Amino acid sequence: MIADPEIQRLDVRTVAEYSEEHIPGSININVLDEQFAVVADSTLRKDAPVALYCRSKKAAAILSKKGYTVYELDKGFTGWKQAGKETEK
After folding, report:
1. Positive or negative: CA dihedral 52, 55, 57, 60
2. CB of 29 within 8 A of CB of 39?
3. Which pLDDT score, from 0 to 100, does residue 54 have?
4. What pLDDT does 13 receive?
5. What is the pTM of this model?
6. Contact criterion met (CB below 8 Å) for 59 and 31
7. With helix as H, strand as E and coil as C, how does the chain read?
8. CB 72 within 8 A of CB 56
């Protein structure tokens, strides 16, 4: 599912963590930022599903409440890397 170009890939870690390594094509919005919901609304499309990874439980709750269709990446970024999937630095 995450390979689908219609899926919005969302990394909700800090900018520093995202800068170290992330899934290609992902958007970074720090869920720990007080403005997370505002930034998400100005960045994401509600008409396309959002695939979350890292700290995704909190982000999923916020986004679901706002009307987004949300999926969480099983085992997060660590699982992605362990599966040998591509990452960017």
Report:
1. negative
2. yes
3. 77
4. 93
5. 0.87
6. yes
7. CCCCCCCEEEECCCHHHHHHCECCCCEECCCCCCCHHHHHHHHCCCCCCEEEECCHHHHHHHHHHCCCCEEECCCHHHHHHHCCCCCEC
8. yes
